[in-house]
Amino acid sequence: MDADLIEAPIAAPLAEALPTRRPPSGVWRQSWYRFRRNRAGMIGLVLVTLVVLTALIGPWLVAYAPDDQSAMLHGASRQAPSAVHWLGTDRVGYDVLSRTVYGAPTALAVGLGAMLIASIIGVVIGGIAGYVGGLVDEALMRMTEFFMVVPVFVVILAVVRLFGIVVVGTPLERVPNLNLITIIVLLGLFEWPSVARMTRAEFLRLRQTEFVEAALCIGTSRRDILVRHILPNALPPLIVLVALGIGGAILAEAMVAFLGFGDPRSISWGQALFFNYQILQVAPWTCLAPGAAIFVTVLGFNLLADGLTDAFNPRVRAG
Amino acid sequence: MLSIPVSAQDKPLLAVEGLRVQFPTRDGVVRAVDGVDFHVGAGETLGIVGESGSGKTVTSLSLLRLAPPPARITAGRVVFEGEDLVSTTPARLVAIRGRRMAMIFQNPATSLNPVLSIGRQLSEILRWHTGIGRKPALDRAAELLRLVGIGDPAARLKQYPHELSGGMKQRVGIARALLCEPALLLADEPTTALDVTIQAQILDLLAELRTRLSMSMILVTHDMGVVARMADRITVMYAGRVCETAAASTIFDAPLHPYTRALLESVPRIDHSYSGARRVLPSIAGRPPDLLHPPAGCRFHARCPEAVPDCARIMPREISVGPGHTVSCIRRGSPAETELAA
Amino acid sequence: MSAVLEVSGLRKQYAVVKRQLLRRRVTCAVHAVDDVSFTVRGGETLGLVGESGCGKTTTARAILNLVRADGGEVRLDGQDVRPVLAGADRAAMLAVRRRIQYVFQDPYLSLNPRWTVTEAMREPLRVHSPGQEREWNARVAELLSTVGLDPRHGSRYPHEFSGGQRQRVGIARAIAVQPEFILLDEPVSSLDISVRAQILNLLAALQDRLGMAYLYISHDLSSVRFISTHVAVMYLGRIVEMGAVDEVFAHPRHHYTAALISAIPVARPGAADTRTQLKGEVPSALNRPTGCAFHPRCAAAMPVCRSVDPVLAPMGPHSLAACHNPI
Q1: If C147 and its partner were Cys, which of A76, A205, C168, C274 is the partner (CB 3.0–4.6 Å)?
Q2: pTM greater than 0.80 (yes/no)
Q3: How many structural domains are present in chain C?
Q4: Which residue of C lies nearest to A221 if distances are taken between CA atoms?
Q5: How far apart are CA B2 and CA B245, in angstroms?
């Protein structure tokens, strides 16, 4: 062993080499530690957890099936909240609490589903554009811009309506929640450009960092550089974008449903608003409940994204 | 606090006594400057030398109360032309900044406003402080550009910072500082970001200007060569405290503090041959301490080749060891300092 | 070791392109590296010095094919390695990369922030000696000790180390595959002065021990003097003087070298009085002066300097300079 290299002129004193009382070491764990100290982010996390729990176990806990219209049969529809129906009943006798709770899994399916599609497409396209560059980059970016320019909302409405007509009489008609799936896919298809641009920017930036150059000097293969060096470092801003996108997708679906283009057989908050907005003045609870649910969920994801931004990019704060 | 007058009749232009600057952070309080004393006489250049974490930059910014929040001056006085800047009103500070005491910064690229022309930036300052009209202000700005060695000043006034080279930008920065003929110029690493040959030009310029304008200067740097060139007296700082202050020749010929000595020995010399069998630079073991949790006692004791057990307990106080020469080291006779509540 | 790295006629230019709607017009070219040649033998250190824009970093990156050079050869023991590095034969490319490594300037950015130090050091082992995983851990521990770090700290992340320690990790990573040549780009410029001496000592000791050759790039002439056996001075992409280090520093023949040396503030009061004044700034590479690129700033310029480009010529037994009117 090179014992004579470890003598006083070269060796750093090892005892004080590393501070011992610092927060946990991993970069992800460090981000978590910072996240915990961000109030907005923690509130967001709590809200999102609430929604997720509601989606997972809520349906087991509510007293009424969501499509139970028995209340209408004995004239108890449009009832104010009472001991029997905690949030009242809606225009056609559904229990508002049940419908609201059952709307949660739908909302999450929309948000997560849309962003999953958007992320996969976006990361692949943005990554290729950012890493390869040149003409490929130009072509992909023009395509991205095309998707950004198209008016998403109008297209969704049109496609949903057309699809609904086209599908009549075909085996596809019997697919459950086809409309909802269409909406999810369309939302994903129009959300990917922002992911792609962010990914491209990150890949461009990371491609030029010194540790990537160091990897090149070592001889690491291009694939390894992409997957082991660049991708993990590109994730934080992408995660933030995804969190924001989930909230946005949920809101978009609610808007589509509210306009009447949603899936009438799915249980969503937008649908509830669509059914009940006409009786808003006489039975406000029917709209307030799903409205509040949308608000809380989207707010939760936005605050979460806010907190994540801070956690990944520590800023020196006065205090 | 101890303050050593330069000579019996000279009242120093600037006297810093017991300055303490702290940064409260989530992890604790960072004591960036922890009891610093020095003074600058009229027409004198003081070099403040230290590495990162020594507190030299925070000190120089704190003189004008420009240290960025959350920095807070928690103790001490900065007496400039008879007035304590720590306790004075913001209105007085604004009147002094740029007028009686001016500053040039390390990075000329970021210290000039990129969206304003040079002429606009310079004349604005003049008009703010002296209220003169636009044309006279521009004339004076041109005069100053000539003074700092920029040819064709009229054209330069219309240019924007990005059109100038690094050396030119720093010259503009110097011109900006000299607009109102300040009594004291603070230069924080003015040449670190510049190429070597440009560095020499800027240092020559500063030397010439301070003589021509009879200006005092505080030069903050980590480069011993720069202070050798420019400073009359040198203050060596480490981890927020002053180690040693003396005339420049004394610091280089007969340094007393172990840190000063070790620092001078560890810097490779350009006028010295190292082609021998065994090339070793006497180096200082370890690294600068964490200012969140500074070591007890003397800040340098963990790395000091002359440390004794007492060094870990006792914070040394400045003691005079010769005319104009002070040192903080118990091995050189410093008494213990009673710890002041921060 | 007796390996030899010969660089001859290396060229890299960047075209300044004016983009009109459908055409691209090349207006001029910036010669970042302009016909650079030198030789480094095992155990030696060539210091490459110059100010910003002189092309020293580009030269190093061109040698390693981090930027694609436009011409010239890089011979390792006689074999031109530039086509190998750029070529498709991965095994041949790896064989070359193993022999030349790079230490970066910025200790903060040259390590992947999401990898532990051990992972960072295992990467060269994984790439060059796959299949020997059992020995990797031992080798990593050995490397960390060699550069003066505690092997137990290998599981920590770069941000937990100081700048000097990170640079040690970078050096350990570079020597992991036992290269014959290491290119070091300003390895101590970002470090505190009290830490620089430690790292310089480490580099010197490693060289004495392992016999590698260094190409040491820096604008800090004092550290270059300490570590180099030879030095080459670059100006606007060309080497203007080259030779044994003591010879060049004590008796520079090119006026730029003399100005550079005398511009360094010496840590001795009063030393500044004997200095060569250099006027003007480094000209933009877009507007390269005719003839000798240095002539506008040179106090000893002659008429021929304005028109004829000087070539490197021997000025003594140990040095070369490109000057019509050498000192």
Answers
A1: C168
A2: yes
A3: 1
A4: C127
A5: 12
With 70 as the cut, is the pLDDT of residue A229 above it?
yes
> Does C93 lie at the interface with B, CB-CB under 8 angstroms?
no
The values of phi and psi at residue B300, to 5°, are: -95, 0
Quick check: B283 and A9 CB within 8 A?
A: yes
Query: Per-residue pLDDT for C131 more than 90?
Result: no
CATH number at residue C226: 3.40.50.300
Shortest Cα distance, chain A CAs vs residue B18, angstroms = 24
Over residues C181-216, the pLDDT tens digits come to 999 999 998 888 888 889 999 999 999 999 999 999
Q: What's the rounded mean pLDDT across residues A290-311?
A: 92
Alpha-carbon distance of C254 to C226, in angstroms, equals 21
d(CA A249, CA B292): 45
d(CA C150, CA C168): 11
Q: Is A112 exposed, middle or buried (0-12, 13-18, 19+ CB in 10 A)?
A: middle
Tens digits of residue pLDDT in A232-253: 889 889 999 999 999 999 999 9
Q: Determine the distance from the C-alpha atom of residue A171 to the mean position of all C-alpha atoms in its chain, rounded to a whole number.
A: 31
Q: Which residues pair with A98 in a beta bridge?
A: none
Average pLDDT over residues C61-65: 92
Domain boundaries, chain A: 34-74+81-312
Residue C17 covered by a domain = yes
β-pair type (C24-41, C4-19): antiparallel
**Lowest mean pLDDT across A164-168, C187-191, C235-239:** A164-168
Q: What pLDDT does C272 receive? A: 60
Which candidate from A13, A317, A318 shows the least CB-CB separation from B285?
Answer: A13
Condensed to tens digits (0 to 9), the pLDDT of residues B185-205 reads 999 999 888 888 888 889 999
d(CA C119, CA C24): 45
Contacts of A318 in chain B (CB under 8 A): 69-70
Give me the residue label for tokens 């925070």: B58
* Amino acid identity, position A196: A
Q: Exposed (0-12), middle (13-18) or buried (19+): which is C35, by Cβ within 10 Å?
A: middle
Determine whether the interchain pair C160/A18 forms a contact, defined as Cβ–Cβ distance below 8 Å. Answer: yes
Residue C299 confidence (pLDDT): 85
Rounded to whole angstroms, the Cα distance separating A283 from A273 reads 12
| Domain contains C263 | no
Query: Cβ contact (<8 Å) for A16 and B286?
Result: yes
Separation between Cα atoms, residue B10 and residue B216, nearest integer Å: 14
Interchain pair C226, B273: CB under 8 A: no
Residues of chain A whose beta carbon is less than 8 angstroms from a beta carbon of chain C are 1-2, 5-6, 9-12, 14, 17-19, 22, 25-27, 209-211, 213-221, 229, 232-233
**pLDDT given at position A2:** 34
> A126 falls in which pLDDT band (50, 70, 90)?
very high
Residue C271 sits at the chain B interface (C-beta within 8 Å): yes
Say which residue the tokens 């927060």 belong to. A23
Burial of B100 (0-12, 13-18, 19+ CB in 10 A): middle
- Homologous superfamily of A34-74+81-312: MetI-like (1.10.3720.10)
CATH superfamily of B14-100+180-269+281-332: P-loop containing nucleotide triphosphate hydrolases (3.40.50.300)
Q: Does the CB of C27 have a partner CB in chain B at under 8 Å?
A: no
Q: Using a CB-CB distance cutoff of 8 angstroms, which residues of chain C are in contact with residue B226?
A: 265
How confident is the model at residue B325, as a pLDDT? Answer: 93
Give the pairing type, strands C45-49 and C230-235.
Answer: parallel
Domain boundaries of chain B, sorted by first residue: 14-100+180-269+281-332
Identify the domain containing residue C227 by its residue range: 4-99+179-240
Among A22-31, A49-58, B107-116, C90-99, which stretch is predicted with the lowest mean pLDDT? A22-31
